[in-house]
Amino acid sequence: MTCWTCHEKVAGPVCVGCGAPQPPPATLDPYALLGLPRRYFVDAAEVEQAYRALARKLHPDRYVAKPPAWRRFALQWTALLNEARTLLKDENRRAWWLATGHPAPRERGPRLDPAFLEEIFEWKERELDEPGFVREQAGAREAAMRAELHDIFRRWEAGEGDLAPVEDRLSRLTYLSGLAREKDPHGEHRH
Amino acid sequence: MANIGIDLGTTNSLVAVVMSGKARCLRDELGRSLLPSAVRYEADRTVVGFDAREAAPEFPRTTFTSVKRFMGRAPADCVADAALFRYEMDGEETRVVRFVLPDGRGTTPMEVSAEVLKVLRARAIECLFGEPGGAVITVPAYFDDAQRQATKDAARLAGLEVLRLLNEPTAAAIAYGLDKRGGGRFAVYDLGGGTFDISVLELDDGIFQVLSTAGDTHLGGDDFDRALADHVRVELGLGELDKAGQRALLAEVEAAKRRLTDAESTEVNVAGRTLTVTRAGFEALIAPIVERTAVACRQAMRDAGLSPEQVEAVVMVGGSTRVPLVRRHVAQLFGREPHCDLDPDEVVALGAAMQADILTGSSQLADDLLLLDVIPLSLGLEVMGGVVEKFIPRCSTLPINASQTFTTHVDGQTAIDLHIVQGDREMARDNRSLGRFALSGLPPLPAGIPRIKVEFTVDADGLLKVSAREEHTGIEANIDVRPSYGLSEDEIERMLEESIDHAETDVDARMLIESRVEAEGILHAVDKALAADPELLEPGEGERIRAVADELRAVQLTEDRKRIADLSHELDAVTAPFAQRRIERDLTLALSGRGADDVGQQLGMKAPAP
Fold it and tell me: Quick check: is B22 catalytic?
């Protein structure tokens, strides 16, 4: 790669020779962007440290006196860095990205298993007699689902198995989290 | 070129700059750093500042104060404020607040603010001997996109390049050096003349975030004055006062309020009668007003999810925080003494100047501090049923990109309308409408086939830009941005063109300054040469040179540009033989053995005069 402005050889996001930010990548790879290994189990402090080191170099505030093209690249880089940082700090989005290469589910996401939905429907029926039943069940299943997901990634990082089941687990997990956090539908009628 | 920091306030505005490593506010010829944000329109000129504010009661229909309240807001939302200030608004206008002058001319809050900014810019040119590089302008943390854009538009109309819009509480925190603490949560208590803001900030390793803001847009020192004035009127049995009497009373109590900051008691003289007011008495009058600020403080703490002891420092901003009761109240509320070492009127401008200095890149601070702001309110699109689909959540670190993909509903459809809103409510109508974006020039394809990717970018100032492209064909859609409130690009262009009418005066002003700077340079060089080489002067020559120099010194700071320039040239001419002799002497010295480099340097140092 050569620098777009001084034509010297360049390796990083900023040209060592003339100090110009290079054109940012067209697609987001949060791990490559922050120079972190592609692992599910990343430390938030590690992400933050990598982010800050790069943000200090690439923030548009560093280029206020520079030509518009420099400022535009700095803006695009920093926007990408902000996105990468948010993504890597959220374990669900991190899992999603590692499994699919996309930052978030496309369109509606994968269909949920009908058996799974049926089970939830049964919980809701029992909720009528046992208020709080749905939240309780959803919370327990959510924790189990999370553990399963961790297990998949642990094996994957050890070079065993693949990430094919991740999409389905994540979809269920998101659904269960929603149920577990849902406001108590009867809350206002009780003391 | 030095960068400047500007506090564009509701009541007063200031400009500051970092000189020799220290931030200071620039002052007018009377030594005042405050410039009242008041503008009076006359037939052929505008009057800005103290004169405009003091004469406001005589010219109520042509004087504008507090226009910051109207910046970037919808006319429909401003009716109450306009009535309060008795401004006549153009009722036809739905998109931008337009004030109507008695002679039929119109003006907008952005143009009024631009008049204030022009005066500050001129002050900077005067003090810095040249055009400032760029400006950091402060805005309230809660300002939305339209209000920030309006502020930037005003700066553009004033011929200022905006480097960054900075949140006012963040600026105050920087002025107090809180950014050097590494981390912590801070509260900024800002009580001005007519507005109150409380902000809770969090600093984490060079990143400032506004956690919450609360306040009252109609609460401030003016309320203290009114409370004291009412008390005095009753006590002295003054009855109903006419306009002039009321004004005299307000001026008198305002001065008494200031005296009570240090004095235990003071006398108020109105209409030949005298009343003694003690500080305790004054404090009893204003206690209910001060208590109202406490309500907002508790609200802000609740929103930030903090208890008072989790706040590490409290910073005082705004002239009304000089009142001792306010300081005691804040100390009690947060359980710690607030910071009030800096002039509370100047603190925001000082912080802005420090940030402006960091942005030059030459400051030593530049490597340590990076201000990362967050977007105060979510951005979203109105979708089916008037519901908002958020694409950038509140408190996202800026700058940020987001994209959404759309398609068409009708075969051959070539345009799509998008409505962008800012706010955190579910329904579009409950949020602030930012603009409608018409994407046109799409390739005509069957319904549902086009994939139009719309990219939203919010820059470091919190301002939104939109671009769009059809993904199959790569065709860029044309985006017609119609801001819901505020000025369109065309309107700004037109206003800038109109201001070229005034460009002549601007050019004159600049030439005057250049002449002054040139005169200063020549006088300095002449003084140095006269002191260094008196033996090279012919008899009487020194007196002739000094006479011209004194004459130039006398006119140097007047408005008479031609006279300054003429005398500069005359001084140049009258010193020419003397300068020639000094050069010859140096050359002789050089030929008699001194290094050529020395000579070169000596000659170089002589420019531009002897």
Answer: no
Distance separating alpha carbons of residues A95 and A87, to the nearest angstrom: 10
Most distant CA pair in chain B, distance? 97
Judged by DSSP in three states, B123 sits in helix
Instruction: Kindly compute the dihedral angle of the four CA atoms of residues A69, A74, A79, A84, in this order, to the nearest 10 degrees.
Output: 130
> Domain extents for chain A?
30-89, 114-180
Q: What is the DSSP letter of A22?
A: P
Angle between helix axes A91-100 and A68-88 (nearest 10 degrees) is: 100
Q: CA-to-CA distance for B573 and B567, rounded, in angstroms?
A: 10
Q: Do B367 and A56 touch (CB under 8 A)?
A: yes
Report how many Cβ contacts below 8 Å link chain A to chain B: 57
pLDDT digits (tens, 9 = 90+) for B378-405: 888 887 778 888 888 877 888 998 888 8
CATH C-level class of A30-89? mainly alpha
Q: Which two tokens stand for residue B40?
A: 């009076």
Select which of B81, B190, B345, B346 is catalytic. Answer: B190
Catalytic (active site) residue B168: yes
Q: According to the model, what pLDDT value does residue B429 have?
A: 83
CA–CA separation, B7 vs B171, rounded Å?
Answer: 9
Nearest by CB: B460 against A48, A61, A80: A61
Q: Could you tell me which residues of chain A have a Cβ less than 8 Å from any Cβ in chain B? A: 48, 52, 55-56, 59-62, 64-65, 75-76, 78-80, 82-83, 85-86
Using alpha carbons only, what angle is made at residue A12 by residues A10 and A13, rounded to the nearest 5 degrees?
105
pLDDT value, residue B335: 93
Over range B245-251, report the average pLDDT.
87
pTM exceeding 0.80: no
Mean pLDDT of B149-176: 93
